[in-house]
Fold each of these.
Amino acid sequence: MPDDKKSSVDEVLKREKLTKEFEKEKRISEQKAIEQAAAKLSSQSQLNSEPTKTSKFITNIDIAFSQAKADLRYYFLNDGNYADEFKRLFVENESIFKRYGITSQKYLEYVRESFDRYKKIHDMMPLEPMKPKHFKYVEDSISELVRMFNQRFGK
């Protein structure tokens, strides 16, 4: 009987250690994402000497996109200018998303799930590249989400 208690304590300690390591790795990856976004922003500002529409501050959506681009599940953000278009859609509807508690990470998850739904409906391969027709479906899905929020909860 004492051996059972010892093994469960060991398991709990291992779990806590793994959780701490995971949190540490998560903080490091977030810091790297922030640094990458800052480097990208500074390189853009060096290329464009005149002021642009983009802000000089790193926003949550920039951090979320830089993290997502490193994640294989969001492979389609690396194709073409789809990442910029999804970012534009988020910024256009940011006030609505904030009102209903949708963070930039949740928004990206919704985008990925919409694209996965489209691939499943049309029997596409898992890593099929995004095309304008697929983007239109996801864009319509986001617009439908915003419309449903407004309809359900009012303005």
Amino acid sequence: MNEYKIIDNLPFGFDFHNRSRKELIKYSEWFYQNKEQRMFELNRAVQQFTGKMLQQDYSIHSLAKLNSFLLNNIKSENLSKQELEEKRKTVPTYITI
């Protein structure tokens, strides 16, 4: 699969419980402004891997299909300490590897 474009424009990390109401509202606005682009990016990644478009209608059926795709296609890999450090350099700091 080609590289999945990581979200790189978050207003802040995922530490929601440490955020003020104003910051959470800003995050909500960001989420809805970026939702369609993220859905497009997800569909592009699935289509590249399977050759099929992902049904994106927010139904339980479509979410179950996405879950099945992820469970069957996303794998973890064991990395050496050096490989892990190299990988960390390419991933935003708010994502824990």
Amino acid sequence: MANPNTVVTWVDARERLPRSGTPVAAAITGRYPADSASESDTAVGEEFWLVRPMVFTTLHWSEDGVEHRDCFVDSDGVVRLPYGLISAETVTHWAELPTLPGKMTHGVLGEDVQPALQNAWGARPLT
């Protein structure tokens, strides 16, 4: 098998955004549990900064019909905006996800999956 290691290059979301439709690793910051400021104007919850897989898109419609532009969307449909924009959780940095082992793409579907897996493992199909 080819070398399974990859190098990640983080991009500051304030400086540049990915192409629409690009799957990315997104560094997200916010507070958990998410809550608005209290009466004393002090933030509630614990601050976090973590990485999640997301897709960047220039236009996204939420299930509630809200239009979002230039945003990151996770697999649960949660929308996060680039850092500096008003959002409870924002994306500070992003990095393109590596391609699948032995492939030049991020996804394989249907009948092409098993041959791609066998090629990546360098083995014959299990019987």
Amino acid sequence: MATWAPDVGLAALLSGLEVAALVVFWFVEGMKQWATRGGTVPGRTRRSMLALGLGAASSALIGLGRSGADLPVARASQSVMALLLALLLILIAGHEGYDRLCTYRLRRRLRRNRQR
């Protein structure tokens, strides 16, 4: 049991730090939107995608580093965190792509109607 304690403690610490960093990031982004009274904040989606991408990559690298240190619980928790952050990144990127596609199609239709 004593050999599992550092492994579980490290897994909880690393996962907690990542979640705390993500909460702080979203809080700061929310404060920016609050400062504009609910308006749009330029570059918000890019910053979110960058933060999630870097978070997923760093979790994967930490998990890979833990494989050599014989810490299976920390490795598994970092792999799960990397997977969750990557899925969240995919959802945000997909939504952004869909919004851009809809805007492009609307502008194209309006241009076509204006030319008639």
